Amino acid sequence: MTITNNGLGTDGKAVVVDLNEGRYEGEQFARAASETAQKYVLPGRVEEAVAYDAVILAGFGGPEGQDDVIPFLRNVTRGRGIPDERLEEVAHHYRHFGGVSPINQQNRELQAALQAEADRRGLGIPIYWGNRNWDPYLPEALQKAYDDGHRTILGLATSAYSSFSSCRQYREDFAKALDETGLWGEVRIDKIAQFFDAPGFVQPFVAGVVDALRTLIAEGADLTTTRVLFATHSIPTSDAERSGPRDVDWGDGGAYAAQHLAVSEVIMQKALAELRAEDGHANLPDVEWQLVYQSRSGPPSQPWLEPDINDAIAEHAAAGATAIVMVPVGFVSDHMEVMWDLDTEAMETCEEHNLRALRVPTPGVDPVYVSGLIDLIEERLNGTPTSERVRETTLGPWYDVCRPGCCENVRAGFKPAISGLQP
């Protein structure tokens, strides 16, 4: 049967693809495909119930003391040959906070909250936690799950968007964990799709924007000179262009930018609609918003997504803005990039320009967010049809099984990765 662009055969029927029947060469790629990816119906949503018996929460990791900072940064930059002297130049972010990143404690709290909600629903599924760059590492989490008797595992990454570092690298991390534990063929790992527009992720940001605008209204601020800046981590433009399925023209910034723009627009619309429904706010004016970027770390010669939030703040101030609302839409918790780049640097930029500034909380362990993540787990447990999966933008629901070539790492190429079509 011939495959057409819409995932249907020439006879109009859905195509089932077996990745181990010569579609791509290379033994590693063949064994890196999860069972779901080996045989599934295009276009990439799994609509069959799967009896997952464990979940692994996959995090980035962070240092938990001054002595951890450089070893942690070595892990983050492994393979790039960056000397410790240069790592120390960026270590001051962590040193400023006693060498402790809040991300590990936040993930402990998230793990506990997810477990409590899963137990409340009677799912009978344990939640494990492992990191990419610091203890507890993913291979340790996988080994513990295996030792506890679990064989069919669902991965949940603490990142909501499509890019190499926020999706494919986690898929590679799971494949690497299978290698390091020797559990290929013993354990199946699939991954929850990007959840940037899932209601449980979106609603906490809506509530935060509403609260921030209410505060400004109470202070007598002029909303026509208020700017809402939706902030996310900048990435190299070459990575951004390769984010998401390669057979779709996502425009500048690839699927990464498209997803952020789509969900930011929804959050803004919902927040204004909620405020206008309140007494006395029916004629509330529109509030200008913009997607901005932060935390770039590459050399000046390498193009990264722009504008930088600090440049945007300065430009808005020069154009007559009086207040800034920062929405960390690219982040699931208040970790180092939020605490330093927004709460420290961006706030200082606002002060320099005499701007009133407010920062919206990240989802963290908001009950709505936690419940929403368990909803995503239940979708995969139950094989919920795509038509019944509620999402807040027209881009979703995203793919349960990543498309060929999705989120390529320009510098390192394709490595074995689970839960996706090769390469």
From TrEMBL:
One of the GO BP terms on file: heme biosynthetic process
Official protein name in the record: Coproporphyrin III ferrochelatase
Reactions the enzyme catalyzes: Fe-coproporphyrin III + 2 H(+) = coproporphyrin III + Fe(2+)
Primary localisation category: cytoplasm
Residues reported in the UniProt entry to bind Fe(2+): 233, 337
Binding site for Fe-coproporphyrin III: 101, 170
Coiled-coil stretches noted in the UniProt entry, renumbered to this chain: none
Enzyme class label: lyase
InterPro entries: Ferrochelatase, Ferrochelatase_C, Ferrochelatase_N
Source taxonomy: Bacteria, Bacillati, Actinomycetota, Actinomycetes, Micrococcales
Protein task: Involved in coproporphyrin-dependent heme b biosynthesis. Catalyzes the insertion of ferrous iron into coproporphyrin III to form Fe-coproporphyrin III.
Biochemical pathway: Porphyrin-containing compound metabolism; protoheme biosynthesis
GO molecular function, one term: ferrochelatase activity
Organism the protein comes from: Microcella putealis
Gene Ontology cellular component terms for the protein in this record: cytoplasm
EC number(s) recorded for this UniProt protein: 4.99.1.9
Keyword terms: Cytoplasm, Heme biosynthesis, Iron, Lyase, Metal-binding, Porphyrin biosynthesis
Similarity field: Belongs to the ferrochelatase family.
Location of this chain's protein in the cell: Cytoplasm
